[in-house]
Amino acid sequence: MTRPRTVPVVVWLIVLLHLAVMLGQTAVFPNVRSPDERQHVDLILQVRQGDAWPWPGPGTAYVTEGVTAGGFVEADSLDGPLHLADRQDVPPRGERPSYQAAGGPATMTVEVPDGGVAEPVFNQLVQHPPLYYLLGAGVVGLVPDWENAPLDQVWLLLRWWNALLALPLPLLLFAAARRLRLPEPLPVAAALAPLGIPELAHLASAVNNDNLLVILGACATLLVVRVLTGDLSRRTAALLGLVTMLALLTKGFALMFPAWILLAYVVAGYRHRARLRAATTSLLVAAAVAVPGVAWWVRNLVVHGMLQPHGTHATPPDLTPVHGWSDGGLTWLGRFTERMITLFFVQDHAAAREHDASWWMARVALVVILAGLVTALVRRPLRPLDALVLLFPVPALAGIVARGSWEQFAAFHDFGAAQQGRYLYTGLVGLLVVALAGAAVLRPLWRRLVPLAVLILAGGMHLAFQHDVWHLYWMPHDAGPDAFLRALAAVGHWYAFPSAVLVVVAVAGLALCAAVAVSLTRSALGDRPPDRPARLDTDPLVAT
User: Using CA atoms, how far apart are residues 229 and 65, in angstroms rounded to an integer?
Assistant: First the structure.
């Protein structure tokens, strides 16, 4: 049961602003320009057609020719700016090719150098569980005769669906911060925090199974917060088990959920020793509900001999370590650390690793988050065990990523494999809430300014990010006085929905940003003292 009256109006405005930013990114980034987006869309379409259901085994699924109709740029790393404003070969809206017209389910092939036989392109994403793709296939089914509709429109519909998946994120952050009794207005600042991570908005505006896992991780974090603050009810345990089950049916990173939930209930049981039996019973309820998700990974062990098979090989590749630390381990570690930081906040679409404006802003945001974390852990506005449980997913996920990346380095001397900061987003809510808890030690007058400071930082992050993105994709080669207008016209021409839709999104986004800024400024400069912390048994989104 929800109680929306307990959520301030400004938080609802932030939710809508969050949505407007994500929908705007669907126009700024051309189709396929998100990690593995072409393969994600292709697998959804294959599930819709029945070609990928029952779920294919590793090394048996291929990218289809039809999916090429959805994009007009390359999916791989870019060599430099694309100058899309100079392109004249993109057909008018509504006249662009359909899935069937581009080849339908025929297997995509790539030419082999020196006259070799063309090879099929594997879709490695069958290594993941199928939940995200089943849901996506249901969305595609809403389009009548989708196979013969312009595929860029079907693609954009899937992008909008992904943005809607991420819509509740500010609400979940607000609810978690209030449940933890962070003093006002820090829960509002928590709701704003996702806007300070441009790469999160970009990922949420693209077709990617990370988006489902991220929102499930956010829901799990709120439920873990409830457990830590004394909610040992079976209902909360059942919800936590359900979220865990869905996450385990989405992506392998959810394998850290069982340990995380166990840790939360151990802490709660230790803290409420008189209710140890209730904590144990609830833990068992959560585990029982999560069983179907666990069963998928048990199936992998039985059928494939490993937890997660390699998507492109029916027989697992030989990953016997050949290289060690002396063969460049320090270089690998430096590259891993740098890329995980950069790609957590922004995206280097050219893979050039340039120290541009967005790269530097990523470091500014990192310093702010680290300062909040250190303050929270030293000054203890949160109970230390609560903070450690909430932070657990980030090092757990980082460890999983580091292990996979090192495995590739040790076997193939690959210095950059699997180094994506977005893989940490499943633990985003806990990370941001604990970091913002550090601001609880500020004097009330200064604390009142925190939401406005977060909004200003978010604005700076997005300005730097958009500056780099527009120069990489849209700005014409001839940077004359009308260059930006030509780039803007190109975005409108490439957009799959009518340009009026894009205008509405842009105007609404600017209006919402102004409304949020005015509201936060009035609160920061107002005479009313900050509200008292919410009671532990008060939750603005989930009834006790």
Answer: 52
> Which residue type does 183 have?
P
Q: Which candidate, 153, 242, 158, 182, places its Cα nearest to that of 441?
A: 182
The alpha helices in 74-150, defined as continuous H runs, are 131-140
| Packing angle, helices 450-473 and 9-28, rounded to 10 | 10
Measured CA to CA in angstroms, residue 337 lies from 21, 340, 401, 494 at distances of: 28, 5, 11, 36
Largest pairwise CA distance in the chain = 76
Residue 165, CA atoms < 13 Å, CB-side half-sphere: 27
Strands (E), 292-357: none
Q: Which of 212, 196, 206, 207 is nearest to 245 (CA)?
A: 212
CB 427 within 8 A of CB 397: yes
Q: What is the pLDDT of residues 63-88, one digit of tens each?
A: 999 999 999 998 877 888 999 999 99
Identify whether the C-beta of residue 129 lies closer than 8 Å to the C-beta of residue 250: yes
- Judged by DSSP in three states, 137 sits in helix
Can you state the angle between helices 428-437 and 357-379, rounded to 10 degrees?
60
pLDDT of residue 74: 87
Please list the residues that pair with 62 across neighbouring strands. 122
Backbone torsions φ then ψ of 10, nearest 5 degrees: -60, -30
Q: Are the beta carbons of 8 and 188 closer than 8 angstroms?
A: yes
- φ/ψ (deg, to 5) at 62: -125, 155
Q: Would you say how long the chain is, in residues? A: 544
Mean pLDDT of 125-150: 97
How far is C-alpha 447 from the geometric centre of its chain's CA atoms? 29
Contacts of the segment 513-516: beta carbons below 8 A, 24+ positions apart = 513/17, 513/459, 515/13, 516/10, 516/13, 516/14, 516/17, 516/192, 516/455
Element (H, E) at 303: helix 276-304
Is it true that the peptide bond before 54 is cis, omega within 30 degrees of 0? yes
Q: Which two tokens stand for residue 26?
A: 């669907």
| Each residue's pLDDT tens digit, 152-173 | 999 999 999 999 999 999 999 9
What whole-number distance in Å separates Cα of residue 194 and Cα of residue 421?
15
Give the closest residue to 71 by CA, choosing from 99, 109, 47, 108. Answer: 99
How many other C-beta atoms can be found within 10 angstroms of the C-beta atom of residue 115?
6
